[in-house]
Amino acid sequence: MTAGRFTLSPATSAVLADLGVSTGAVLRAAGLPEDLFLNRQVALTPDQFYRCWAALEEISGDPALGATLAQRVRAETFQPAIFAALCSADLRHAAERLAAHKRLLGPLGLAVHADGGRLSVTIQWPADPLPPPSFVAYELVSWVALARLGTRRPVRPERIAMPNPPGGAAGQAYEDYLGVPVGLAAAPVVTFTALDGRRPFLTANAEMWRVFEPELRRRLADLDRVESTADRVRAALLELLPAGQCSASAVAQRLALSRRTLQRRLAEEQTSFQAVLARTRHALARHYLERPEITITEIALLLGYDEPSSFYRAFHQWSGTTPHQARATAT
Q1: pTM, full prediction
Q2: Which Gene3D superfamilies does this UniProt record tie to the protein (predicted)?
Q3: Domains in the chain and their CATH numbers?
Q4: Where are the beta strands (DSSP E) in 103-192?
Q5: pLDDT in tens, 132-143
Q6: Pick from 84, 54, 65: nearest CA to 18
Q7: DSSP strand E in the chain: where?
């Protein structure tokens, strides 16, 4: 995971399921790999993330997607940073915590102001690429959803505004949810009354915050880690091999990469597609050989070989012995 990216958790799939939208359809439309959510956490560049959002908006056919998502907010579908915010004493403290951990949310900044007792949160975006207006609307509306979830009260913002606010039916849908229209402003901002900013969170839990805080620190440290291409190739092969697909082209397509890019990234990790393929097949072969109910011929097919003789030659090259000898030793 690297800085400058939006991070998504596997719970994103649950959110899409609630919308009745196929995760695979969204990822394909966005040109992203279908194995994306097999990872524990996902990091997308702004361009990738915005393509994913645009694909979700198109497939759902919902012009007020942000409002719809806000109405489906549940604590268990939050990322840890936002779940930890629910442990705060009130909305003001939750905003301060989220601002401190804003890098976990993506390449955006949060400016929190308590002006005259009112609580205002302004969202600052990178200049390029600009986010879709509907996503900006969602980010603003999510603060209202957080306040309502924490207080269990129908909190209504004093003001909510953004560049290019939604109009027409979408604008009305947002107003129906928020209780106020989305106005025009140079920067996205949502403002709450002093009372709502200080209203106690029924979800406040200091002990749970002490549990989450080390995890948040760890995730901040993880931002500089990069996902191994070799690991992604291996995960793809685990699914493709039983179907007889073991080519670099098939794996590259699964990972939404060109074959040349796949080979280049593996070379940068001091390995190659053939080396990863061989290691994956060898590990799987050892696993299958420990299961006597699977014949040698079946193992060859599960590993993507057309003929058992090809598997015999490869296994001997890997281990210096035959599959039958290895099975006898294992049992």
Answers
A1: 0.66
A2: Homeodomain-like
A3: 6-222 (3.90.1520), 229-330 (1.10.10.60)
A4: 109-115, 118-124, 159-162, 183-184, 189-192
A5: 999 999 999 999
A6: 65
A7: 6-8, 42-44, 109-115, 118-124, 159-162, 183-184, 189-192
